[in-house]
Amino acid sequence: LATxxxxxxxxxxxxxxxxYKGWDASWITGNYVLYAxxxxxxxxxxxxxxxxxxxxxxxxxxxxxxxLAALTIATFDHYLFVLPYMVFLGLNVGYSHTSSSALWAELxxxxxxxxxxxLMMALSVLASAIGxxxxxxxxxxxxxxxxxxxxxxxxxxxxxxxxxVALKIKPRQIHASNT
Length: 179
Hints:
With 179 residues, this protein is an all-alpha fold. It has ten helices and no strands.
């Protein structure tokens, strides 16, 4: 859910980011193509990694690029840092979407994939709606873009740690706790 929340917030507030950093907003939007290409490459490579190692293994690292994207915006003011920012966002989306879909099948079995996937998509839409509001409230209450991005980075790191901890639970333990 961190991916939906943060990326929607970043894209929704790109004008605020550009203004705060002193960048031309068209520089950010003009580089969305870099984000798109990177996410496509990440999606394709994630599939191979999942086949080789498992979705559980790939999912452990899916939020790292998102944390790096947030830290990039929080830390650097030079306009060229939009490039790694877009690459990190693309890597996150590519690995996150692909590993999440495969992960639900690994954890809950394909017989439950429709129910699990529909729940996760609904929660993802909710997170996507909440993200811009959170950043907006932070900005309205005197926080800077840098501070807001740092908060997203911290949230993302905490979320990633929780993913790693949750994935240490064996699949039988998950199924047993559901019965």
